[in-house]
Amino acid sequence: MSDTAGMFEDEAAQEARVAPDPAVRRRRALAGARRTLVDRPRNLRQSLAALADGAEGAYDLDELPDRYGNGVVAALEDRVAELLGMPAAAFFPTGTMAQQVALRCWAGRTGIATVALHPLAHPEMYERDALSALSGLRGVHPTRERRLPTAAEVADLDEPIGTLMLELPLREAGFVLPSWQELTAVVAAGRERDAVVHFDGARLWECGPHFGRSLPELAELADSVYVSFYKSLGGMSGAALAGPADFVAEAKAWRHRYGGQLFEQWPAALSALAGLRTELPRLAAYVAHAKTVAAALTEALAPLPWSRVHPAVPHTHQFQVWLPFAASALGEAVLAQAEEDGVMLFSWWSEPGPPGLSMTEVTVASDALEWTARDVREAVEGLLRRLV
After folding, report:
1. N-to-C CA span, the chain
2. What CATH number is given to the structural domain containing 359?
3. Structural domain containing residue 183
4. pLDDT tens-digit map of 190-233
């Protein structure tokens, strides 16, 4: 190798050390932080160890692996049906597939291919028009407000609907929920229009404290419910669709047609059972502590114009924080604080609104329980010193 080539190679290596890949830098900062409001990522070795540890007590590990949905997968389906108080449940590799199948099945049964849902709902935002592209379904929007639709808005729709889909909580609007009275009223409005009701309950597990109701009481309002295993329970992947036994049997047939009849799914099923066993009982504590964290953030950010915690009192253990800085500046300040002070307060930032006004989502989980209100205020002060 020539001296010139070696010189350029040394410069490139030096530059990589000075300015590493942003994802690598963030991962290192998060791993090295002494205190983080953000859950720390695991490498593959740690993930394997966590799966083995969590599986103990969640299922009989002397049993054979599943084959095309029996064994541990069937046990998971029975457990979900029991927790939700529904007659049956089906495991799906993804929530997208579960909801596409659910809405397709209901359209076939009602004879109406129109689904009433929020424009910020997951099928409208993240599924590449799968409703229309795969099933020929069409969405209508009772409201464009950043909240769930009201009973009056559903009643005022000017065309027939086969299914009313409600995302609980509505993530893109700030993980917001209606009141119990509002929820029961909008469900009744859908039924008055002869529509079936489907809950996108990816995060339904943590909604009980807001409503003051149990999971079966919530699920009883709907004809079908989808739940996720990785969004709140810490599972690897996967989802379940619960509802009447004949509906679930039909959903399993469509699951096969959609390519969801996997040969073995025991890692995902085991991690889901572990999450139901360990994380589900903790969610109420996360929801309660989210209120403490949100109040401390609101207090610390009060002097900063255009800052906001939304909702001010979180409905679940997740909420939004909006700050009047560019996402790039916030990202750099967060990493610098983690590297220099060993404190990581926030994760990613985006600018979904006006330029220069950025948003992040806060999830209060196990690591966040260690934070007092004073810890939060001091961390915000340290972050703002790097920004203002």
Report:
1. 48
2. 3.90.1150.10
3. 57-278
4. 999 999 999 999 999 999 999 999 999 999 999 999 999 999 99
List of E strands, 9-51: 35-36
Number of Cβ within a 10 Å radius of residue 68: 12
- Which CB contacts under 8 angstroms, 24+ apart, belong to 121-125? 121/165, 121/167, 121/170, 121/200, 122/95, 122/96, 122/167, 122/171, 122/200, 122/202, 123/96, 123/99, 123/165, 125/172
> Residue 240 pairs with which residues in a beta bridge?
91, 227
What does the alpha-carbon distance between residue 386 and residue 383 come to, in Å, rounded to a whole number? 5
Q: Which of 278, 311, 341 is the last residue of a domain?
A: 278
Helices 266-278 and 72-84, axial angle in degrees (round to 10): 30
The span from the CA of 362 to the CA of 375, in Å, is 15
Question: Does the predicted TM-score (pTM) go above 0.70?
Answer: yes
pLDDT in tens, 102-151: 999 999 999 999 999 999 999 999 999 999 999 999 999 999 999 999 99
Q: Residue 335 and residue 329: Cα distance in Å, rounded? A: 10
87: CATH: 3.40.640.10
Cα–Cα dist 270/113, whole Å: 36
Residue type at 159?
E
Instruction: Say if residue 302's pLDDT is above 60.
Output: yes
Q: How confident is the model at residue 14 (pLDDT cuts 50, 70, 90)?
A: low
> Same domain, yes or no, for 91 and 43?
no
